[in-house]
Amino acid sequence: MTDKTIKRTHYLLFITGGLSIILFLLIFNKTVEYTSSNESCASCHVHPHSEASWRLSVHHNTPSGISVKCVDCHLPPEDQTAYFLTRKAYHGFHDLYAYVTMEPDEIDWAAKRSTEAAQRFVYEDGCIKCHTNMFPSTLSAKGSEQHIKYIRDPEGNSCIQCHHEVGHWRGEKGGFAEEEMDAQPKEIFTDLTEVNSFEDFEEKIPGTDVSFKMIAIPGGEFKMGSPADEPYRRSNEGPVREVKVDSFWMAEIEVSWDEYLAFFTATGSQGRKEAVTTNEETDGITGATPPWGAPDQGWGKGSRPAITMSHHAAETYCRWISQVTCRKYRLPTEAEWEYAARGATQGPYFFEGSPKDYEADGFLRKLLGANTQVFDKYVIHHDNSPNKTEEPDAVEANPFGLKNMLGNVAEFCADYYDPTVYGKYPKGTIMNPRGPRSGMEHVVRGGSFRNSPKDLRVARRDFTRTTDWLTTDPQIPKSIWWYSDVKSVGFRVICEYDPEDFQDKKK
């Protein structure tokens, strides 16, 4: 082969290689372009309502006609080439795998709507690329305050903490829908409910069509806390103490949205200042300011437990319900709560079984799942809930007749929280303990739909985290009425029983 032939071959190979590279790049770019289109995403994305909810959102249904594509939010910006391609490959294979191996009705879509889940597949670099001006003239004062906080601490904040609804419309309305506030009641209760003896009764809230059942809980002694050998026990659950409590009434279920809306309608601080003090009263009792967003998370109101209100709001509700019913309602003490939850039992739960029986610990249990058939009868927990609150009748009552004492939503107690308070009580049987005289946070009991069996034991103690639960609240000062960042805490009321109140009636 001559030198001329060799050179010609080299030229042909060079040209062929160059054309092949150009062809590969063209095909690659076209592939990236096509797989970055909304049509490609919708072709194998298994979420049944993703496209419809996107079309109704403010990112598509805009006054200017500009439409944001799926990849604008769910992938990094394309100018971050390497990161863009690696994340695109990851999400693409993930969605393709789900499309091939799973049925849409097998997926817990409610769980994927949470802010925590969304942060895994929404990229803030995309938000910032489009929203370069974080302080437009139309931005509210509250929005400006929140954006300043984001700029100061971008690692501790995120766009979707406040703007979680912009990509896909959820059918939610901020605050309480007008039809809920203005709905005509079926029957208005005008008279106070008569209670002539210590027995169960139905409290009818005067001026409303709302009622709720109160269960008579006879006083007695019990062992408060958990023994050292109880599985998953925590140090703040001991030492075990002998406690005696007086009789009281406790609500059969957690305060429902029907009950809480009756309070809000009667006392709501429409337009009043946020930082109202505990002692300030207007028209009797000044209630909550309008909530920031949808307080029920779009899960539904009615008899579902009311959530997202603060401990202060719960105590104010108790003051209001006491005023309108002429009875002494309040939050339960921690001792009263545990006594009622145990229902004259002394195990980890008020039903049979050990936490080790129900908790999916270990390789085989995590793979095959634990047998929670008995547990499911009494508790709304992480594995049998759609990652949201449920109706109270979804479970059976405890021996005292109280529902959802464990699970569904955790419940505020009146006590300030102290992890070592049990050891600080005097020796012997403690009469009606009420916790520390002061503190920063309050006790929370019972666990919620987000917890697994180990954290739904009767003795399990938790507490409010006010700062963390108000992270995304843009108001300065923060709301004293609504928690912006917790969806799993509500409350239950008790009514005090005084035998002397019934002496005149007996005569």
Compact overview of the structure:
The protein is built from 18 helices and twelve strands. With 507 residues, the protein is an alpha+beta fold. The protein has three domains: 34 residues; 126 residues, no CATH class; 306 residues, paralog of FGE (formylglycine-generating enzyme) (Alpha-Beta Complex).
Structural account:
There is one protein chain. The protein is of the alpha+beta class. The protein folds into 3 domains: 1-34; 36-161, no CATH class; 200-505, paralog of FGE (formylglycine-generating enzyme) (Alpha-Beta Complex). It is 32% helix and 9% strand. The chain contains 18 helices and 12 strands. It has a 5-stranded antiparallel β-sheet. Strand 1 (201-204) and strand 2 form a beta hairpin. It starts with a helix and ends with a helix.
